[in-house]
Structures are given as structure tokens and as C-alpha cells.
Write a structure and sequence with these properties.
Layout lengths: L1 E2 L1 E4 L15 H14 L3 E3 L7 H9 L9 E7 L11 H8 L4 E7 L2 H7 L4 H17 L3 E7 L1 H7 L1 H14 L3 E6 L6 H15 L4 E6 L6 H10 L4 E4 L13 H11 L2 E2 L9 H12 L16 E2 L2 H9 L17 E2 L7 H8 L11 H15 L8 H12 L7 E9 L10 E9 L2 E9 L2 H14 L9 E9 L10 E8 L4 E8 L2 H28 L1
Parallel strand pairs: 1-10, 2-3, 2-9, 3-4, 4-5, 5-6, 6-7, 7-8, 8-9, 11-12
Antiparallel strand pairs: 13-14, 14-15, 16-17, 17-18
Helix pairs in contact: 1-2, 1-11, 5-7, 6-7, 8-9, 14-15, 15-17, 16-17
Length: about 525
């Protein structure tokens, strides 16, 4: 199997995405997750750009990594100076990483109009920077910024810049499709010519952006044409429309195209690690992401589900377990008995297809769906509903009341609502209050305070998504609403649903279901360990 080197730029290029901000601890945790997956190189930031990255490069030296090498990132030296005099180059050495990624200008337009220097000086900047870093014991990867545009506009000069990096001692020259606008055949043409001229001297890399939705495709095409080094971001986020998504590229290359990117035994960790990094980054995973999305192996159509139950190969291109994902059968009013049984058997394996209780469960589910419930995106509430019908449910707390109130204008930033709850656990009454940015946030805080006294693991729960749907728009403000809440404890995630003409009540139903689901599963885990 041919080896493909993977460089993950979540902490550098990914961090340039809108709404993305990492603390030093976040960056360290992401490095540990990427290392566990088996990523070979992690481009971790620019130590010359901000104090946070300087602190990170000091702290990461204390963290043992098994697979990944940390890379510092920076530009070639400034024009009309030396590497010894350039503080940014010196900060790359101060970071003390074995490998340094340097970017330089390939496009003559950028040289003349952006950095305002001569074409000859730019070539010296590239060559001298690579040579200086190599002389100081660093392995150098050279990122040829805007290479594909440069190839189209002034190919001869673009190749001169690559030669300057080679002459300076770069081990990798990486072709950057910086604007993300090139079509597959255009990308292929440039890669083929670069490989023919340089592959016998250095490794060739690819770094693509997704402005035309082709970042993954262009990366795969580059590999088929001889590229052996691929850069991207594990979840594909980044500036504008994002970077090449490594959670798709890695399994595409390894499971479909016969290349090795990570250790084979690590492929089953892919989905979990993607979820970990989404959690650290504080973003919601795209449910329809190939391989790792929640819906990647989700089936709803009755005939599809029947076929998959007989043989998953009928509608699945790989087994979900290969990438650590799960097969999902979506619940709805059109779901067949076999579908419901498959879902029930995950927590009640004793139930058989022909048991009378199944008909009762289906009838109850359809009644709830008439009221506006929808279980296809709320597995947590579906499980709780079935447990109640089976008599396998004991409430963890009893609600006496809750109240919410709002303030306008806000009394302080981040606070506009207050909530009070009175709950009972094993005869003990707990009354708590919470302030939050909205009534549901305040209710969540108040309920959490009340339950943590009795169930400390509640502190692990975090709401990651909150959706409201109006069910009957003709009823205007009297319409019922459906509230769907997605929760996580950092390892698993689950979704619950509530329906009411009162949006706060609907939210409470979904919220309390979320806490119940977590507590039930924690108790069952402890019980299994005991037996």
C-alpha cells in the first residue's frame, strides 16, 4: 500500500474560519485527538503572530505524542532583509519544532502588487528562508501559495518559485489552490506537470480550498497523479467555505483507493475523534458529512430499511463500524414493524417482532405523531417513550413547578431571563433558580443546579443544538411548536423532542427528557460493570 502523508491544519488554517477560536488548552486537546487518530503532521499555528501561539508551542513540548509531529507555520523572510534579522523567522526557530511549514508567493501579481518587491527578490526570499531553516536543523515544507493561479497566469515564474524552494532544501513543495476556484481538470493538468518536473527531487503536496465544492475531489485527483502529501482540516472548516475535509479524504484514499493514510486499526476511531474535535471547537457536526455524519448511514424509506435489515450491502457503500459510525433507522409514521423492532432491541433485546407490545408501541407512537411529535430525529425521546410503554421507566425527579420571567432591557450582558424550579428526588425537595440568555437557557441552568446535588454526572451534559418548528402555521401565535434539543456528555450525543402550544413547555419536555436519557444510560453502564 502506498503511503500518503497527512498534514492537518485545523489549528492554523481551520482557526481562520468564522466563529472559530481556540484556547491553548483547546489546541492541546485537539493535538492529542489527531495524534490518537494517527495523523503524521499537525500544523499548529504561527508563533510569530500572537502570544497565544507562543504559549502553545511552549506547552505542547510537555505533551507526549505517539504519532504526530508538531509544525510551526510562517512566511518567508521579509523583503530586503536577512533571515537572521527577521523576527518572524527567529520565532519559528524559538518554537523548537522539528518541522517548519513556510509559505511564499508563486504568483507574480502577488509579488508585485501585494508584497511590493521584485520577482528576483521573491525567489531569494524563498530559497534563503528554506536554506536558513534547514541549516538550523529543521525539516522544511514549502507551501506555494496561489500556485494554481500562478500556473495559469505565469507558469514559468511559478516553476521558478518551486525550484527556489528545492534549491533551498525544502523536503516537500505543496501546491496551494488558495482561492478554491479551479476545476478538476485544471487542477490535474498543473499537478501532472509539477510531478513530472519535481517528484524525483522532493515530495509533492496538495492544499485545496472548497470555494467551488471541489476541495476533496481536487485532493484525490492530485494523489492519483502522484502527490504523496495531503494537507487539510479534519472537519473541513476554515476561511470562507472551508478547507479540504480530511474526514472524507482519509477514508476515500484508504478504504476506496488503496492508499495508507493512518494505521488501519485507527480507522474505527474516525467518527469519535471527529465528534471530539467538534465538541472542543464548539461547533455542530454536519449530520450529512460522508462517513462520520450522524446521517451517513441513516435509513428512512420502508423498502430501504427492509433491504438493509436483510443485507446492509444493498444500500451502504461500507459498514459503518469501519469508521466507528452507527447504522440508524429513522422513526416515523411510515416506519415498519421490523424497523421499530431493530430500534427497540438496542435497549430491550427480549422483545420479539410478533409480541403484542410492539403493536401497542406503534399505536402510541402514531398518536404522538398526530400531536406533532417527530421521532426520526429524536432517538432519545423515542427510547424513553418505549421504556414507558414497556414499564421500564422510573422518573429520576418529580417536577412540582417551574417559572420563567424575562427582562427588557437586559440587566446585564448575557442575562435576559430568570427561571425557578422546584423538583423532588426521593422525597427531598430542591428549589433552585437560574439566570440565562433566554428562558430555556435559564431553565437548563436551574434544573442542572437542582439535579447535580443528587446526580453529579448531570454536570457533563451540554446542549449543542436547539431547534423550534411551528407545526400548524394557520393557527398563527396559537400554533403548536416542536422543540428538538441535541445534547452531549462529550462522548455520546442524543436528541430529544417536546411538543406544545407553549414554547417554554415544549422546551421543558425536551430538556427533561434529555436529562432522563443521560441518567438512565449512566445507571445501566454502572450496572453492566457490576455484573
Amino acid at each position: 500500500m502506498k503511503q500518503i502523508i497527512i498534514l492537518d491544519s485545523t489549528l492554523r488554517d481551520g482557526a481562520q474560519g468564522e466563529g472559530i477560536s481556540f484556547s491553548v488548552k483547546d489546541k492541546i486537546h485537539i493535538c492529542q485527538s489527531l495524534d490518537e487518530l494517527g495523523i503524521q503532521y499537525i500544523e499548529a499555528g504561527n508563533p510569530g503572530s500572537n502570544p497565544k501561539d507562543i504559549e502553545f508551542f511552549q506547552e505542547i513540548k510537555k505533551v507526549p505524542l505517539k504519532n504526530a509531529r508538531i509544525c510551526a507555520f510562517g512566511a518567508t523572510r521579509r523583503k530586503d532583509t536577512t533571515c537572521e534579522q527577521d523576527s518572524q523567522i527567529q520565532s519559528l526557530l524559538d518554537a523548537q519544532t522539528d518541522t517548519v511549514v513556510i509559505f511564499g508567493k508563486s504568483w507574480d501579481f502577488q509579488v508585485k502588487e501585494i508584497i511590493k518587491t521584485t520577482l528576483e527578490e521573491n525567489l531569494l526570499m524563498i530559497k534563503e528562508t528554506c536554506a536558513y531553516l534547514k541549516q538550523n536543523g529543521r525539516t522544511v515544507f514549502y507551501d506555494a501559495e496561489h500556485f494554481f493561479t500562478a500556473y495559469e497566469q505565469n507558469k514559468d515564474y511559478a516553476f521558478q518559485t518551486l525550484q527556489a524552494a528545492v534549491d533551498g532544501g525544502a523536503q516537500v513543495i505543496c501546491l496551494c489552490e488558495t482561492k478554491g476556484g479551479f476545476m478538476i481538470d485544471e487542477c490535474r493538468k498543473a499537478v501532472v506537470e509539477v510531478v513530472s518536473k519535481f517528484a524525483d527531487k522532493v515530495q509533492i503536496g496538495i492544499h485545496t480550498h472548497n470555494d467551488c465544492g471541489l476541495a476533496v475531489a481536487n485532493s484525490l485527483v492530485a494523489v492519483t497523479e502522484g502527490v504523496t502529501h495531503v494537507q487539510g482540516v479534519l472537519l473541513g472548516f476554515g476561511e470562507r467555505t472551508g478547507n479540504a475535509n480530511l474526514s472524507t479524504i482519509i477514508p476515500d484514499l484508504q478504504l476506496k483507493m488503496g492508499y495508507e493514510c493512518i494505521p488501519a486499526e485507527n480507522m474505527k476511531k474516525l467518527t469519535a475523534i471527529c465528534n471530539q474535535i467538534a465538541e472542543i471547537t464548539n461547533i455542530s457536526m454536519n449530520q450529512q458529512s460522508p462517513y462520520v455524519g450522524k446521517s451517513a448511514f441513516a435509513h428512512k424509506a420502508g423498502m430501504h430499511i427492509d433491504a438493509v435489515l436483510k443485507n446492509p450491502f444493498a444500500y451502504e457503500h461500507i459498514e459503518p463500524e469501519v469508521v466507528g459510525n452507527n447504522r440508524v433507522f429513522l422513526m416515523s409514521e411510515v416506519a415498519g414493524r421490523a424497523t421499530i423492532i431493530e430500534k427497540i432491541n438496542r435497549f430491550a433485546p427480549q422483545i420479539k417482532k410478533d409480541d403484542e407490545i410492539v403493536e401497542k408501541i406503534m399505536a402510541h407512537m402514531k398518536e404522538l405523531e398526530k400531536e406533532g411529535y417527530q421521532f426520526e430525529g429524536a432517538d432519545g425521546s423515542f427510547e424513553l417513550m418505549v421504556r414507558k410503554v414497556l414499564g421500564q421507566y422510573q422518573p429520576f425527579f418529580k417536577l412540582h413547578y417551574y417559572t420563567t420571567s424575562g427582562s427588557n432591557p437586559r440587566p446585564e450582558e448575557g442575562v435576559c431571563c430568570c427561571a425557578q424550579t422546584k423538583v423532588e428526588v426521593d422525597g427531598q425537595i430542591e428549589i433552585t433558580a437560574g439566570e440565562g440568555d433566554g428562558p430555556v437557557n435559564a431553565l437548563d441552568i436551574a434544573l442542572r443546579k437542582a439535579l447535580e446535588k443528587f446526580y453529579p454526572l448531570v454536570s457533563q451534559i451540554r446542549l449543542v443544538d436547539y431547534k423550534v418548528r411551528v407545526i400548524d402555521t394557520k393557527a398563527a401565535t396559537a400554533a403548536k411548536v416542536r422543540v428538538i434539543i441535541e445534547s452531549t456528555d462529550g462522548n455520546a450525543s442524543w436528541t430529544t423532542v417536546g411538543v406544545s402550544a407553549d414554547i417554554i413547555e415544549a422546551s421543558w419536555i425536551a430538556l427533561s427528557d434529555s436529562f432522563d436519557y443521560k441518567l438512565i444510560h449512566d445507571i445501566e453502564k454502572r450496572y453492566k460493570k457490576i455484573i
